[in-house]
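Working notes for the structural subgroup meeting. M.R. asked for a predicted model of this chain before we commit to crystallization trials. I am recording the input and output together here so anyone reviewing the notebook later can reproduce the run.

Input as submitted:
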Amino acid sequence: MRHQIFLLLAIFASCSSLVSAEVVEHSFHVQNRTITRLCRRQVITAVNGSLPGPTIRVNEGDTLVVHVYNLSPYNLTIHWHGVFQLLSGWADGPEFATQCPIRPGHSYTYKFKITGQEGTLWWHAHVSWLRATVHGALIIRPKKGHSYPFPKPYREVPILLGEWWNANVVDVENAALATGSAPNNSDAYTINGWPGNLYPCSVNQTYKLKVKHRKTYLLRIINAALNNQLFFKIANHKMKVVAVDAAYTDPYVTDVVVTGPGQTTDVLLTADQLPASYYMAANPYASAAGVPFDNTTTRGIIVYEEALVPSTPIMPILPAFNDTPTAHKFFTNITGLVTSPFWNPPPRKVDEHMFITIGLGLTACGKSRNATCGGPNGQRFSASMNNASFQFPDKISMLEAFFYNVAGVYTTDFPDKPPLKFDYTNPNNSMNPAIIMTKKSTKVKKIKFNSTVEIVFQNTALIGIENHPIHLHGFNFHVLAQGFGNYNPAVDRKKFNLVNPQERNTIGVPVGGWAVIRFRANNPGVWLMHCHLDVHLPWGLATAFVVENGPTLSTMLPPPPPDLPKC
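Returned structure, recorded in C-alpha cell form:
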C-alpha cells in the first residue's frame, strides 16, 4: 500500500511539473581512453571521451535524467556534488553510502529533480580516485522567466581546475593503501583539462578564452582537484564574486579566488583592460608545513578579440603557497545575499550541538607485531573525526540498511564530542602516542527530521596541521564563524554572523583553527560528511548523518528505484 501511494504521488508530481519545468536527459559512456599530456601517452577513465566530461545545463525546477553506462574496468558511481536530492537520496551517488557500485559492463539511470538552488555545481565519480578524470560542470540557471540577481553576463564560461598524474590514478591510490603511506603527488594542475605552457610539451595544451572588450563574463570556477586547494588569478583584472557552492553572495570584489577541492565560485569578469593577452593562473595553497606537494602552476590565456597584434601574455603575481592570510581573508569576506530567491536565514534554535575534531592519525599496520607500514612509526596513515576513523560497508549500502531496517551495517554512536579533551592545535601533540592512534568503525549520527544541527569543526595538529575542506551531502549549511587556534565558546560565539552568513556545501576549516556551521536536517536519508581531499577519505576522515523520516508521506524517503545496483 505504501509503495502504491508513493507511486501516485510521483505521477501527480510528474504531471504538475511539466507545466513549468523540463526533463533534461544525458547519456554518460564511461570508459578508458588514451590521451597525451606532459610528453607522454596515458590511459585515463573519461565520460564520453572528454576531459573534463560533459557540461550539464538545467534550469531550477527541471528533472535531470542521466543514463550511466560503465564500460570501464572499475566499479563506478556518480555523485551530483551539492545537489540537495530532496527525497531522492538514492541518486546521491557515494559508493556504499547511498548505493552499491555500478559494476563494469553494467548501467544505471540517475533521475532527480533540481529544486531550490541556482548556480554552479558539478558531478564526479565517487569511487576511489576516479574523479581525477571523471568529472564535469553542472550549471543550474534560474527558472524560465526568472533572472540572476546581477546584470545578465555576455557569456558564461565553466573553468574547471584539476590535477594530473603521469600514472593511472587508481594504481596511485592502491599503492598508497597497500603500504599505509602517503600517495604520490600529482605532476601538474590543469585548466579545463589542459596543463598550460609552463609544463613540458604543453605549449599547444593551454586553455584559451577569447573575450570582447568591455563585455562581462560569468566564470563558473570549479575546484575539481583531488588533493589541493588553489589560488586563482587573472593578470591585471579584478573579479566580482556573486555566488559560492550554488548560493548567491553579496558582491565581493577581489583579485584572487581561493578554492578548496569540491568548492565552486561564480565570478563576474569584465574585460576592461587594454586589448591584449593576459594569463589566468592557478597554484596551490599548501597549508601543511613540511609536507611535500605539487608546487607547480597551471595557466591559460585570455585573449581580447580587439588586440591588433599578438602579444606576450601578462602573468599575474600569484600568492605564495603558504599564504594563509590571503586565503583566510577571501573565505571570511564572503556573505550571503539575503535578497536572493532561495535565501533562508540561519536557524536560531539549535537541537543538536556537536564539537568535531578533524585530523590525521595512525592505525596499526597489521595483525602481526612485526608488520611494518609506510606511515610514521611504521604504522598506517589514518584520519578521523572525534577519533572515529570511518570505514564503509561493502555488502549493502547504508541507505538500503536505513530503508529496510537492516542491522549490523552501521552503528548510531558517533560521539558529539571527542573522547579526550586536549590542546588541539598545539604542535607538541603532533605525535603524542596517547591520542594519535585511531580505530576503524562505521559510526553515524542519527538525528530527527527537521532538527537543527550546529557543528564546531576543530582542526588538530596530529601528524600535521592543515586546512581541511569538509563536504556535507544533501544540505547547504550556514558558515557562522571561522578562526584560528582552539575554539573558545566564551569568546568566539560573539563572532557569529546570524544576519547574512555565507551558505556552502563544502568549507575549508582553517589550518590550525576552527569553523562553526548550522543546518536544518529536512531531508530524510543517509548523508555523508567527509573531507574532500581524496587522500583523506579512504583514510577515514568522514562520518554520516542518518536523518529519520518525517511524520507525513511527503517527508519520508520513497522506495529505491527498481534498477538500483546490487552489491
